[in-house]
Amino acid sequence: MAYINLLPWREAARKEQQKQYLTVLTATAVMSFLLMFLVNIAYNARIDGQTQRNRYLENEIKVLDQRIAEIRTLNDTKKNLQQRMSLIEQLQGSRNLGTQIMDAIAKSVPAGVYLTQLEKKGTALLLIGKSESNNRLSNLLREAEESELLSSPLLEFIEAGKDNTSLLSNFKMHLKVEGYEAVQGADAAVTPAKGGAK
């Protein structure tokens, strides 16, 4: 006798296909989830590594900034010390300037010329005195021009003595001191250096 299958095979086949489809879909979803999870872990690891490198670089930059600040401070201190040393050298070289000025004036003033007043303001000298003759004043001007320390002699006036019996004429002369600008600058710069020392 022939075998006849009376069971609903088409419905069973459809259920089998649905079951396989759901299995494949579930496996695909799980694989996708695992793949995304692994990719996420990899990227998080790379981000963490880059963050650590950034922190390391930031710390090193801070250290270098501190060293640069220290170097700048040292450079400023070095400049201040060099300025003070140069000022000390200038003052050391010019400590006898007053004596040298008096010596140069004494050598420049000829016989017959008498100084009654000597004033010094910065690099300028003012000579007030009496002279027996104009020739002697000319000698004084010539000697001042030839002096290494004195320069730019300028005779402001010559006037005869107010007394008729006096043979001396009054004069007023201006001179400049050569090489005094450095000393004057040193005097001006010493005050801030003292203030900085406090």
From TrEMBL:
Residues 47-91 form a coiled coil. Keywords: Coiled coil, Membrane, Transmembrane, Transmembrane helix. GO terms for biological process: type IV pilus assembly; type IV pilus-dependent motility. The keyword Coiled coil applies. Signal peptide: none annotated. The chain crosses the membrane at residues 21-43. Pfam families: PilN. InterPro entries: Extracell_DNA_Util/SecSys_Comp (IPR052534), PilN (IPR007813). This is Type IV pilus assembly protein PilN. It comes from Rheinheimera pacifica.
